[in-house]
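Subject: Serine-enriched protein structure
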Amino acid sequence: MTSIFYSGLSKDFSLLLNNADDFNVIIQVGEVNNTKEFRAHSVILRARSPYFKSALSNEWITKRNDMIVFNKPNITPLIFDMVLKYIYTGELNLKKYSGENILELLIASDELILEELFEHIQDYLINNQTSWIQENFVLVLHTVFKLVSCKKLQDYCLESICTDPRPFITSKNFPSLDKDILYGLLKRDDMQIDEVSVWDSLIKWGIEQTPGLGNKNNDRTKWNNINYEALKKTLNQFIPHIRFVEISPSEYFDKVRPYKAIIPNHIYEEIEEFYFKGTLPKTFTLSPRVGKIRIESDIIKPILIPTIINWINKREAKSFLNKNDSSYKFNLIYRGSIDGIDSNLFRNRCKSQEPILILVKCQNLKKIFGGYTPVGFYRYLSNSWNNNYYIYSTDSFIFSFEDNDDNQNMKISRVTSHNYAIYNNYYDGYGFSFGSGDLYMEEESLCVDNSGGYYEHNLNSYGTYTIEEIEAFRVVKQ
């Protein structure tokens, strides 16, 4: 058995750093009035950092009196002291430093290719500096999006903002946000905020970013055509990512229409037609933002949730969601990969007589199938000799998506024979059955016919497929 003595090793290397009598490198860091010289050993620097292994090679070094002299003006003495402590001892107590210092250390560790330290700093900021990050989102975003390897912290920041965007987009620093970061946020479907608030914030950002406007000229009543054209140019790439159909008619009249001069003509015409005639836009068909509506599905992505909710409410698939729709909850009650893919197991989990949504992914098939029943699947009548019969429903439907996030090519078939909406196959070995074989589960297979005559003949899919994954959700409207 190998004995390990890391603590003693770390202590000895710490002494070597603090009393570097045989050093051979002088590193000059900082600039102007904040500079300092550090003494170090090239063999240790090369061993611990790929950056120094390259930078201290014979081709790049400068020597003075047989001493390697190296300049790092872009790293402050405080940060470089932290770097050397990590390099020599493998120890670093980040609790002693401010959020700004830790962010500077993140930049330095990326440049010096200290991968272990770089990953640790990201984890530390996420787990221990959440309040500071939220208070300084713009600073953090501008920093981490310059670092290609900083994906973990980038994702954390964006997801945190989308969970509660209002404090961020109404902050005093929001108008200084980098345009590429703003563009990425506007494209997201999971921002939990009213679209009119997104519009208001975009206008404020655009005014601040447009030459000739800003604090000196933010009174729209005093603008001329040149000012409007300048703002239009600033916001040109962002306007197509506003979900105008989610803005109420009164909010549109008060907050959007005054800025019609900055909206491209083809978009504005379709918006007007939507508000006056109810005609959905044709050239920009962005789905509503998912907001607070959640579904923990391994089969579909959140972008498809608004379509399903619209179908449940008997609306067109691409209609905009209203505020009441955010109260829908999809509670998982059965998942094949956890509970087992089997008709009997499905029935045991889905005996509820409440609304249920089914999602099915089949092997070697991108297409997603599903169905919705507002009355559940099963009724057991203790005084009946036959528990295999049909259940009445006016609002059941079956559907398909081309893949897990395609909301452009979906198909829906609504029940036409209400008396035969759901087959109450309590004993027959089926997991579920919509109509007379229109869409049903038998053992480990999904059978798609959609020609039984009890549902609209719209899916245009026929066959028996092996189920790869299946999910059932209890649908709750609070």
